[in-house]
Design goal:
Structural class: alpha/beta
Distance between the termini: 26 Å
Largest sheet: 8 strands, mixed
Shape: globular
CATH superfamily: NAD(P)-binding Rossmann-like Domain
Helix content: 25-40%
C-alpha cells in the first residue's frame, strides 16, 4: 500500500486522535492516523489493557486509555461504535469536541428506532441530539473497513478516492476534511446532518463505490483474497457529488445485509466488536 502523507505542519490544530471503539472501522482509521503521523489514544468499553496488543502493533505514537482519558487527550474524537449503543457516548465529556461518527442504521435482530423508520431524523441527527455540546461530523461510515486501508493514497495520487462527510458546523467539517486528507482520502461535503440520508446505507455512494464485485463460484479463500486485495476504480470528487445529487430518500430506512457479498458478512462476523 502506498504511504499517505506525513503531517508536517506544526501549526495544525489536530495532533492527537482519540478513538472510542477500535474494532473494524476504528482500528483501520487508527492505523492510517499513525501512518500519517498523528498521535492516537485508543479506548473501548473493556479496559486499556485489552488494547495493549494493538498498541504494540501501532508503535510509539499510540497508547491505550480509558474512554474519559482518550476524550480528554484528543483534538479530534472518532466514535466507531454500533448505533444501538450510541447513548453510551459520554455527552458531558465530549462537550466542545469535534466527533467523527461512523454509525449506521441497520434495523436487525429486533433493533429499530421509530424516529428513523419514520424519517423524522437521520441517525447522525440522533447522535448530535445526544451529544448536544459536541460538533458531530459523519464520515467513514460508507466504506467497508477492509477497504479503508486498501484505498488510502497520498494527495495527488491518481488512485486516490473520495469519501463524503456531513455536519452542521462548517469549521468542524473543515478540520475533519484536513484530517481525512492527511490520512489518504479526498472529501466532498454532503451537507448538513439532516441531509446525511443522502450518504446512508442503501444509497449510491454507500459501500459499492469502494468494494470489488465478488463473482459466484469462488471458494471462500478465493473470495476472501479478492475482497481484501482487489482495488476498484477511484471515486473522483465530481463523481461522488453526482452520486449524492442523484440520491432519492428511501423507505424503508436502514441497511440490508442481504445485498452485501457473503464474504463481507463472513469477515465482518469474525471481527465484529473485537475491540469495542
Amino acid at each position: 500500500m502506498s504511504q499517505v502523507n506525513k503531517v508536517t505542519d506544526s501549526r495544525s490544530p489536530i495532533k492527537t486522535i482519540g478513538f472510542i471503539g477500535t474494532a473494524q472501522i476504528g482500528g483501520s482509521l487508527a492505523r492510517l492516523s499513525v501512518k500519517a503521523g498523528f498521535n492516537v489514544v485508543l479506548s473501548n468499553t473493556r479496559d486499556p489493557q485489552s488494547l495493549e496488543p494493538f498498541v504494540k502493533e501501532l508503535g510509539l505514537l499510540a497508547r491505550a486509555a480509558t474512554i474519559a482519558e482518550a476524550i480528554a487527550a484528543a483534538d479530534l474524537v472518532v466514535a466507531a461504535i454500533p448505533l444501538p449503543v450510541y447513548k453510551s457516548l459520554p455527552a458531558n465529556l465530549l462537550a466542545g469536541k469535534i466527533v467523527i461518527e461512523t454509525l449506521n442504521y441497520y434495523p436487525l435482530g429486533g433493533f429499530n428506532i421509530s424516529a428513523l423508520d419514520e424519517n423524522k431524523f437521520t441517525s447522525s441527527e440522533l447522535v448530535q441530539q445526544h451529544l448536544i455540546g459536541s460538533h458531530v461530523v459523519k464520515a467513514f461510515h460508507n466504506i467497508g473497513y477492509p477497504h479503508i486501508s486498501l484505498h488510502a493514497r497520498p494527495a495527488g495520487d491518481l488512485e486516490r478516492t473520495t469519501v463524503p462527510i456531513a455536519g452542521d458546523d462548517d469549521d468542524a467539517k473543515e478540520l475533519v476534511e484536513k484530517f481525512i486528507n492527511a490520512i489518504g482520502y479526498d472529501t466532498v461535503d454532503a451537507g448538513s446532518l439532516a441531509e446525511s440520508w443522502r450518504i446512508e446505507p442503501g444509497t449510491p455512494i454507500y459501500y459499492w463505490p469502494y468494494a470489488p464485485p465478488v463473482p459466484e463460484g469462488l471458494s471462500e479463500d478465493e473470495a476472501r483474497k479478492l475482497y481484501l486485495t482487489q482495488k476498484v476504480e477511484p471515486l473522483r470528487p465530481e463523481g461522488a457529488m453526482a452520486l449524492i445529487a442523484e440520491t432519492e430518500r428511501q423507505f424503508p430506512v436502514g441497511g440490508r445485509l442481504d445485498i452485501l457479498p457473503p464474504i463481507h458478512l463472513t469477515i465482518n462476523g469474525e471481527y465484529a466488536n473485537s475491540r469495542y
